């Protein structure tokens, strides 16, 4: 029996791209939240954490409205940049980045806050800039947090359903990821195909999490 691997490949491509973007944006955002003293900090923390408690269909619905060319933001994107996010792979990436944001930011923020301030002050006393301190002192000391954030973001994106269905629909080769394919096959009573997709996702996520625990244990022992 042959299987269609395209939904799985699309899923892992989406998860990898989302994780890279989140890693690049999550580090500066987590750094700002960890060390900022502005009175608006609770507002930003709340916005970052909203996807943890918000039903995915709610977030997907508002993203669908925002990305639609019939509304201001979607119309502006299409008119000025010829970009249409709704029912496209690019839209899935943007939606996934927003939906998985807390899974990247919160572990990294906790990692930054666990570092003694005396270590940062010592680096500054030696004349190191904040940027040098970040890359030479802080990031090497929060490797487990970086790994946890990356893996959680990847695994969370792999399992997305509600947001993807709302803003991407079910277009083969474009937006039909594995979670949507499983739903499709179950609706068609094709349990063998659904089991194939589910089993691959189960095996991959188990291997990823096992790797994280093993690597983190080694790093903690080495530290």
Key phrases:
mainly alpha; 223 residues; 79% helix; globular
Describe this structure in words.
By secondary structure, this protein is an all-alpha fold. 79% of the residues lie in helices and 0% in strands. It has eleven helices and no strands. It has helices at 6-35, 41-53, 56-67, 72-81, 89-114, 117-125, 130-141, 143-158, 162-168, 178-187, 191-222. Helix 5 (89-114) packs antiparallel against helix 8 (143-158). The protein is globular and about 65 Å long. The relative contact order is 0.15. The mean pLDDT is 91.
Give the strand content: under 5%
| Radius of gyration based on Cα positions | 20 Å
Task: Let me know the average pLDDT.
Answer: 91
Poorly predicted ranges (pLDDT <50, ≥5 residues)? none
User: Helix- and strand-based class?
Assistant: mainly alpha
> How many β-strand stretches?
0
The end-to-end distance, rounded to whole angstroms, is: 49 Å
Q: What is the topology?
A:
Blueprint: H1 6-35, H2 41-53, H3 56-67, H4 72-81, H5 89-114, H6 117-125, H7 130-141, H8 143-158, H9 162-168, H10 178-187, H11 191-222
Helix pairs in contact: 1-5, 1-8, 1-10, 2-5, 3-9, 5-8, 5-9, 6-7, 8-11, 10-11
Give a quick summary of the entry.
By secondary structure, the protein is mainly α.
